[in-house]
Amino acid sequence: MNNIPVILIVEDENGISNFISAILTSNNYHVIKCQNGKDAVTMAGSYCPDLVLLDLGLPDMDGLEVLSGIRKWSDMPIIVVTARGNEIEKVKALDLGADDYVTKPFGTLELLARIRTAIRHKQKSYNPLETDKIRIGGLVIDIVKRTVTMDGEVVHLTPIEYKILLMLAKNAGKVITLDSICKEIWGPYTNELNALRVNMANIRRKIEANPAEPKYILTEVGVGYRMAEDA
Ligand code: CA
Q: Is residue 1 included in any domain, yes or no?
C-alpha cells in the first residue's frame, strides 16, 4: 500500500473539497486536505505530496503566492484550479511553474486525466528514458533523423514548424503557453505571436485530417496549445 500517490487538496469550499476528495479516494489516491494558503505551504513541506491540487481563490492569501512559495524549494506537480474565463491567471500560474490547470466546474474524467499526466511527467523527468521516437496516434517524430510521419506518410515541415511540433510533443498532455513557445523558438526579446499563429496553421494543415477540428494540437483559448497524449 506504500505506493499510493498522496494528493494535497487546497480548497476552502467544503463542498468542492469533499467532492474532489471522494473522487480521488475512489480512484486509489491518498488524500490530505487543507483550506488556506498558510496550511498549504506547511503541509506541502511536511508531507511532500505526489501532487498538489491548488485552488487559487483562498481566504488568507493568493493561491499564486502559495504556488511560487512551493516552487522555491520543490518541483512537485501542482495543478491549479481556476475560475472560468480567467485566462491571465492561468498564464500567470503556468509561468510561475504550475504543471497544469483545471477550470471550475470541471469534469471528473478531465481532472483524473490531468492528475495522471502531471504525475507521469514528473516521474519521467526523474528517470529520463532516452527515446529517439515520439508516437502519438498516427504521428511519429524521429528525433534523431528529424523526420515526421503521419500514418506512415512523410510530413514536410520547415525547421521552425518542426521545433514547435517537437516542443509540444515532448510535453504531450500539458498546456504550453504562447509566450513560452515564442521564447523557445524565437528567443526572449521578440514578440512573434503572429508568426506562431501562422506556423501553427501550417502545421495543422500538414498533420490534421481536419485543421478546423484538430485532434493532435488542441487550442487552449487565450493561454496556449496542448498536444494530445493520444489521438
Ligand atoms: Ca476558493
A: no
